[in-house]
Amino acid sequence: MNNFIYENATKVYFGKGGVKEYLASLMKKTGKTVMLAYGGGSVKKNGIYDEVTAILTTVGKTIVEFSGIMSNPTYAKVQEGARLARENSVDFILAVGGGSVIDCCKIVSAQAKLSGDIWELENEKKIYPADFIPMGAIVTASGTGSEMNAGAVITHEEKRIKGALFGAQARFAFLDPAYTMSVPFKQVLSGAFDTLSHAMETYFGKPDANNLSDDINEAVMRSVIRSIRVLLNDRENYEARSELMWASSMAENGILKIGKITDFQAHQIEHQLGAYTDCNHGAGLAVIHPVLYRHIYRDGAERFARFAKNVWGIDDRGDDEETALAGVEALADFVKEIGLPTSFSQMGISADTDLRAVADSTNVTAGCCKRLTHDEIYEILKECI
Ligand code: NZQ
Ligand code: ZN
User: Fold this and answer.
1) Is residue 106 over pLDDT 80?
2) What distance in angstroms lies between residue 299's CA and the mean position of ligand 1's atoms?
3) Contact of 1 with 211, CB cutoff 8 Å
4) Global confidence as pTM
């Protein structure tokens, strides 16, 4: 196993009723002015907003609302949040939402403390902020695992780049599976597929050796597949939603990545597709993964064969490439089975989208078993249409 240092700074409060039980005592330890950040309004419909504001009021907080954080949050929205935080001398940020709200808040938290521009600082100067407005997260939609890491994915509309930035990590995260009951089912599925994707993108990284991280990873993948299947027949199944919610954190809290260089080529492609189309993240991944894997499985045949056997229960065909391909097709069949899109057109992405530009602006990752060229990425994207 490669050397590693591991720490996770987020304290997790998992389960039904956690906010009611623990949020007040946690907030008593923060400063007076709290930025309450949320998305397009789902929290107002499902009662989470009322529950949280009542608790903040009870413990005497001044609430500064930062609302309207969109899916695939933009850099402009980050700047708006940072301005609001500075103008109101915000002491603590409470992110209430899915990955988009949490990601946006992570960067608001850093940008509010900086005089310069965080995009330029991180991407051009390769300097990463160390001073943050502390934050906490209440997760209302699972999938990204954003609540247990410091990474965020932000769309810079002018530059047409959807890319990673690093900011604050939530000090605490509430994971209440009951909160996910109101999430549109399509989003439940695309979020769960995002989790599966994170696990796969880590599993197919390097080195291709036996290690504990990959053994745990296989369990996470099997669990996600099983829980999605339970929900297909019983959408409100609390146990399955719990499993998916924790799997989501597990896939992105660093545990599976220990000792590994991750792949994340599918994510890089999807993010740039998102920069050009503002598409749904998990749905984009569902389309890209099988197509990408058909392009690369021969270069990682042994690992893909292990995936086929240990994750999809496929018998060894006596030839790694054959077994590997059966695993990729099992993944493709699963996408169909659960009703996620299998083409960009099914996602409503216009055939006129400049896929050449998407391909040319996609990062090529070092952890992928095959180092793709931009031409190959363009071919993959065209097959997805
Ligand atoms: O905005 P509201 O009205 O709240 O509605 C949201 C949104 O429309 C809705 N929703 C959330 N909780 C709900 C709910 N609706 C009803 N009831 C609830 N309890 O769900 C919709 C999607 O929310 P969003 O946060 O956009 O989805 P997700 O959690 O999938 O986050 C996607 C973003 O995370 C990034 C993606 O690229 C994308 O920008 N990612 C972040 C990662 C990270 N930080 O580690 C890793 C991922 O790979 C990913 O790239
Ligand atoms: Zn993802």
Assistant:
1) yes
2) 33
3) yes
4) 0.98
